[in-house]
Amino acid sequence: MKDKPQNKGLTVNLVAIANHQSEKRKLKPFNELVQHFSDAQGRAALLGMLRGIEREALRIDESGYLALDGHPLELGSALTHSRITTDYSEALLEFITPVNNQVGPLLQGLTETHAFSVRHLHGQRLWPVSMPCYVKDEQNIPVARYGTSNTGKMKTLYRKGLTYRYGALMQIISGVHFNFSVSQELWQSLYELSDKSVSFEDFISESYFGLIRNYRRLVWVLPYLFGASPALCSSFIKGQKTDLRFEKSGRGTLYLPYATSLRMSDLGYTNKEQEDLNISYNSLPEYLAGVRAAIKMPSANFANIGVKVNGEYRQLNANVLQIENEFYSPIRAKRVTKSGEKPSEALARAGVEYIEVRALDVNPFSPIGIEENQVRFLDLFLLYCLLTESPKSDAAEEARLSANLKSVVLEGRKPGLELLTETGTRSLQTWLLDLFEHLDSLAKLLDGDKQDYQAALAHWREAVNDPQKTLSGQVIQQLITNGQDHGQWVMSLAQQYHQYFMDYPLSAEVVSDYQAEAQASLYKQADIEAAQSAVSFDDYLTDYFGTSS
């Protein structure tokens, strides 16, 4: 989310937040709050949501193999472009939307970014699923390069460190991130309903952490509905040890019959080094203290890699986290940073500005990896998490949350699946149906005379009643019921979407805008490199970590 959503100029009093428990934010029951916002002013406050999407996609050649060449020059600088960049690898494109308060224009902008990019890939395609497939040699996966500036070198070295720590294959798994914030008008209304025991600014951060805690309690809902990686190419796990008992299909497809998102399993974005960090989401100060401690916490395993060996850096440091971005979490509290500012420093300076949902697989049934009905469901889901009372979490609850997520990731479509609660177990389907009843009242309010949110909710309610209608269920049907090999199926989608983007109508004005930003981003990178040429990389790193909070 590159643009700054809101809460400009906030100053957060960390001591004040720490001295007030989440119980100070006592909310009215959810249904009463929905009723409170049922007039025109309240509905407008709810509809003032801001969203941003970040979609990752691997570049592949016409045979389906991972592209090994550099980031296309026509797309500008991956270091400074606001909409087109790279993630771990030179081959892993990341498309970033500007912040938008309308769903249609948000997705149109993302589509235009795809279409412009595809026309400058020199015949290459985009891999339209989360899990990679045709990688000839993991050692040849190209780490992203960001130029000769110290900033660019540090970004590349961080990724080199990830390679040494976890292997390159895990780092080219693709996902979709959804950034979300609510309007100042909604914050003002909620604050007026509170006991005002903390400042307005602190109330916002406290409330976002309440949303985060409730999201973590219900995060399993997202892989159940939107998980789209129940299967993968057998080449992905070559040489890896796994306890998962895969079934085989076709020439090289491995799958778990009831899995939803292998991307979120131990095969994907997990980090055993981080399991004991116990970073708390009970308040902003506790969260910041946990992140800062993790950045300074030594790791014996990573120390064995070495930091600078024979004059060449292998990683930024030997701590559990090289930098804050290495902290893997299905949701993050965020604030747009100032130049040279670390994420935690931005949060400490001015509080939480928006949240980043990170538990979304690439939707293979959409050319852009996400559909409108998913965005509208996320709106409802996140508003529900915000508007529902959110008690603080303890170690016992955290263990339950982790177990529930793992259960749904590996066997979410299993008939009769039970999830853990504080008092015992509860049927996944019963829990979902109850949640949908709450979301329904919110959907009706947001829709007014329209049916957009109610239609999205109805669409996903079908997946509650019939697991085959989840994204993972549809993938399994394509692969197993229809007897298609995973790699071949994905390649056919890649070709189909390639043609879609080649044919997509881009106006001359839109094309000119992208060309101008690409050129401007290259100039900006050159300016950064010129300005930093006098400072050695060693001194730059010493200064960067020496000023850590």
Task: Describe the 3D structure.
This protein is α+β, with helices and mostly antiparallel strands. The protein has helices at 14-18, 30-36, 40-47, 103-118, 150-166, 168-171, 184-193, 200-218, 221-226, 284-296, 300-303, 343-350, 372-387, 395-411, 428-447, 452-465, 471-481, 486-503, 508-531, 537-546; strands at residues 50-60, 84-86, 92-96, 125-126, 176-181, 231-233, 247-249, 253-255, 308-309, 312-313, 331-334, 354-360, 418-421, 424-427. Strands 1, 2, 3, 4, 5, 11 and 12 form a 7-stranded antiparallel sheet that branches. It has a 3-stranded antiparallel sheet with strand order 6-8-7, with helices on one face. The protein has a two-stranded antiparallel sheet with strand order 9-10. Helix 4 packs across helix 18 and helix 15 (428-447) packs antiparallel against helix 16. The longest helix has 24 residues, at 508-531. The radius of gyration is 23 Å and the shape is globular. It starts with 13 loop residues before the first helix and ends with a helix. Residues 1-24 have low confidence and may be disordered. Its EC number is 6.3.2.2. InterPro entries: Gln_synth/guanido_kin_cat_dom, Glu_cys_ligase, Glut_cys_ligase.
